[in-house]
Amino acid sequence: VIRPEPCGVCGSRIRFGKTAIKCCQCQLLLHTKCREQCPSPCVPRPRHHTWPREGVLADFAPSTTPLVPPLVVQCVTEVETRGLTETGLYRVPGAEQLVREWKRRLLRAGGALPTLSSVTDIHVVCGVLKDFLRGLKEPLVTFSLHPAFLSAADILDDAACDTALRHVVSKLPPANRDTLAFLMLHLLKVSRSPNCKMDVLNLSRVFGPTLVGHSSANPTPLAIMEDTPRQCKVVARLLSLPADFWRGFVGTEQENLVPM
């Protein structure tokens, strides 16, 4: 292994210089010690269904609008069904091993997602959603529009800021725009739940790095330091936009998004 990659069986990283096994048909990569746990027979499948960091959001989106990946819809639906009474939603981490395992299972399932109702800890479901978004090849706001989002959020006049943000959101690729709208409506629900104790400021701190990220895949240490507070500001400003604006992208009713 030259570039560290996760093992397809246990989920932990295979480090630089270590020997690994890779299937020539389905591209599954695993530790030599995990060979006995390898699923058999293998099923050839697109690589982005296995590791999200190799795909952009559109690679996971359906072919019909709204273009929100089924994994995102299922996680959000589960959280809204039984998580809006949990304190620290999205701030409290779920068990790392379970998050990795469920993320792997969901991505390998493709369109036929297994139900998340068997996941006892709702924080694990939150962790899967965050990990999926973090693992994309580029952040939800995209590398090219990253500077525009930061600049719009810096505008001091609220009305002018809102106008600029609406304009930049409309320039996002359709899948990114629809998914951002879906997530904003969800996070607004979380922020309004008194039991969660996760107001807009708390949510923006959690989701700033995840949704906004940086303007390149390999930011400098200086860029990371400068971007962090501005990432949070962008999410906070986006959450200040009215819900009707976001509903315009995903429809007034979201029942059609919920997987049957």
UniProtKB/TrEMBL annotation:
Keyword Metal-binding appears in the UniProt entry: yes
Stretches that traverse the bilayer: none
Signal peptide feature range: none
A Gene Ontology cellular-component term: spindle midzone
Originating gene: Racgap1_0
MF annotations from Gene Ontology: GTPase activator activity; metal ion binding
PANTHER family named among the record's database cross-references: RAC GTPASE-ACTIVATING PROTEIN 1
Keywords recorded for this protein, A-Z: Metal-binding, Zinc
Pfam families, sorted: RhoGAP
Recorded coiled-coil stretches: none
GO biological process: mitotic cytokinesis; mitotic spindle midzone assembly; Rho protein signal transduction
Domain (Rho-GAP) ranges: 55-246
CDD domains: C1_MgcRacGAP (cd20821), RhoGAP_MgcRacGAP (cd04382)
Record's protein name: RGAP1 protein
Domain Phorbol-ester/DAG-type: 1-42
InterPro entries noted in UniProt: C1-like_sf (IPR046349), PKC_DAG/PE (IPR002219), Rho_GTPase_activation_prot (IPR008936), RhoGAP_dom (IPR000198)
Keyword match Metal-binding: yes
